[in-house]
Structures are given as structure tokens and as C-alpha cells.
Amino acid sequence: MHDFISLDQVQLHRVAISRGLNGIGLAIVIPSIQSLVADLTDETNRGIAFGWLQVTGSMGSIIGGLFSVLLASTSFMGGIPGWRIDFHLVAFVCVIVGVLVRLFANDPRLDDGEAKAQIPRKSFCTEVKDMITKAKSVIKIPSFQIIVAQGVAGSFPWNALSFAPMWLELIGFSHKKVAFLWTLAL
């Protein structure tokens, strides 16, 4: 495990695997929590529930950004850089939350046994073909194309901004000052 976490700069395949695990963790958690909030709140309180979900996500970003910048200058277990520990910690926490959601969350649509019995089982290939057909029909909708184009174009500045802490450190700010500035910016 130590060898996997303490990735050498030359071993890009390990970085790709780590990034994939991190993405899987986030992909498990975010949609399932949003789905649970939508399913378990009534229409009158759904906006408030999603507002609180956004607040907690923003607070997590602020606190995570603060700690990741502060830990970047430290080393653990014989030389593993702190930022790599942060990276793996995010993936680990997301996978744990995803497993807990899977184990303990109730899907309100599948509470009664009759609903489960009426759903016909399809083969994996059939489900993939159905999903591709549905995706193609959605992609053909012009308003959906506009929303996706806006989302892609709008995400570029925010993705570039994620490199701001590194840039601030490169121009001479200390880790503590960068953490403070980054926390204020978020």
C-alpha cells in the first residue's frame, strides 16, 4: 500500500488508477445522496433540503481546501507527500459513504414487495442497449445540447481556478497564507 500511495512522478499509470478510484468514490456518493434527498422530502421542503445539501457541500469544500493546502507541505509514513494522502482520503471517505448509503438507505420506490416482483429482469447487454437508445434520444433535444454546452464552457474557469493554490505557492506565498486565502475565496 505504501508503494501505491507514494507514487513516483514517473509512474503515471498509478496516478491514473488513483484518480479513477477517486472519481468512482465521488460518482458513488453525489448522485445517490441527491436522489435520496429528492425522494425522501416532500415538494414543500425539497428546495430547503437541497439548499442545506449545497451548504454542507460548500463547507466541505472550504474545510477540505484548507486542510489539503496545509497538509501539502508535510510528509507521512516515510516521505509520502501530504497532498497524496488528501487525494486518497477523499476517495476513501466517498467509498465509505457510498457503502453506508447502499446498506442503510431505503429507496422509497422499492418499499413494497409487489413493485420488486413486477420489474422484469433484463440481461446486461439489453440494459446497455436500452440505455444507449435513451441517451441518444435525449442528446437529440436542442435545449439539452445548449445546457451541456453551457456546462462545459462554464466549467473551464472553475477547473482552472483549482490550480490557484499551487500558483500562489509558486509565486512565494506560504502554505498557511495560501490556505487562509483559499478558504476566504471559497
TrEMBL record:
MF annotations from Gene Ontology: transmembrane transporter activity
SUPFAM superfamilies: MFS general substrate transporter
InterPro entries: MFS (IPR011701), MFS_dom (IPR020846), MFS_spinster-like (IPR044770), MFS_trans_sf (IPR036259)
Keyword Transmembrane: yes
Cellular component, GO, one term: membrane
Transmembrane segments: 20-37, 49-73, 85-105
Alphabetized UniProt keyword annotations: Membrane, Transmembrane, Transmembrane helix, Transport
Bilayer topology annotation: Multi-pass membrane protein
Location relative to the cell: Membrane
Main subcellular localisation: membrane
Residues covered by the Major facilitator superfamily (MFS) profile domain: 1-186
Coiled coil: none
Gene3D superfamilies found in the cross-reference section: MFS general substrate transporter like domains (1.20.1250.20)
Family as reported in the entry's similarity comment: Belongs to the major facilitator superfamily. Phosphate:H(+) symporter (TC 2.A.1.9) family.
Name of the featured protein: Major facilitator superfamily (MFS) profile domain-containing protein
